[in-house]
Amino acid sequence: MSTLSTSLPGGTWTLGDLTVTRFGYGAMQLAGPGVMGPPADHDSAVAVLREVADLGITHIDTAGAYGPRVTNLLIREALHPYAESLHIATKVGATRDEHGGWPPARQPEDLRRAVHENLETLGLDVLDLVNLRLGDARGPQPGSLAEPFETLVELQRQGLIRHLGVSNATAEQVAEARTIAPIVCVQNMYNLAYRQDDELIDELAEEGIAYVPFFPLGGFSPLQSSALSTVAARLDATPMSVALAWLLQRSPNILLIPGTSSLTHLRENVGGAGLSLSDEELAELDKIGR
């Protein structure tokens, strides 16, 4: 099994004391439609995860709510016992309802249950990284995170969690979390077209804290999408490749977790993210979200 992480675009980043490849993998798409139930092709999902490891990717993002529990169990089936170099990040703070919704689950008992469920389904004694998911399906929402975050800090003190992060968070919530305990990452929606966190990303980079964008192609207007496609066509690349390459070049603390249930797309994403964009191309792309 390859661990030549330097061959992946972007090199590596250190989350606390864990070194991970900046090019990671998000497991959400391995679950069934609407991120509910089992995958359409179980063997293919397992094969994708094994290819993730064979490519040298050492950062996998998951959540107990995916499926629910489906992606965690697939990761365990495909990759357990885990290589020492592989680090799995999970999220708590939301659950699933019978309609496929994502209701918040941030009471202390919800979070304790979620952490223990993640340990059980992933087959681990300690979770490398747990992100507290805040806000709701509309995005980050204002308000204190003190009570739920302090619950996770207590579980960290008990030795069940190595490192903490926050997800779907406002800049104020990130700052509040850091007054309570160290965090190693922030996971928010961000891409070429959706640039609300530009200032936050730069602040986190100075502090050595990772920023993990989700929806690398989400929230584009038709006009913005057209501008991206024009640049991609000129480079003989896909829009996804250009979007991923731009993120890697945007700031050294950005970690990618593109998801796919296809071996072909996985390999395309790795190759595409390695695209080198010139200063002129970066300037042109920069206009999309301004």
Descriptors:
10 helices, seven-stranded parallel beta sheet, two-stranded antiparallel ribbon, 9 strands, alpha/beta, 290 residues, disordered N terminus
Describe the largest sheet: 7 strands, parallel
Radius of gyration: 18 Å
Helix content: 25-40%
Stretches where pLDDT falls below 50 for ≥5 residues? 1-5
Order of helices and strands: EEEHEHEHEHEHEHEHHHH
Helical stretch count?
A: 10
Proportion in β-strands: 5-15%
**Globular, elongated, flat, extended or rod-shaped: what is the shape?**
globular
* Category from helices, strands and their pairing: alpha/beta
Number of strands: 9
Mean pLDDT: 96
Distance between the termini: 43 Å
What oligomeric state best describes the polypeptide chains here? Answer: single chain
* Order of adjacent strands in the largest pleated sheet: 3-4-5-6-7-8-9
Provide structural commentary.
It is a single chain. By secondary structure, this protein is of the alpha/beta class. The chain contains 10 helices and 9 strands. Strands 3-4-5-6-7-8-9 form a 7-stranded parallel β-sheet. It has a two-stranded antiparallel sheet with strand order 1-2. Helix 1 (42-54) packs across helix 2, helix 3 packs across helix 4 and helix 8 packs across helix 9 (263-273). The protein starts with 11 loop residues before the first strand and ends with a helix.
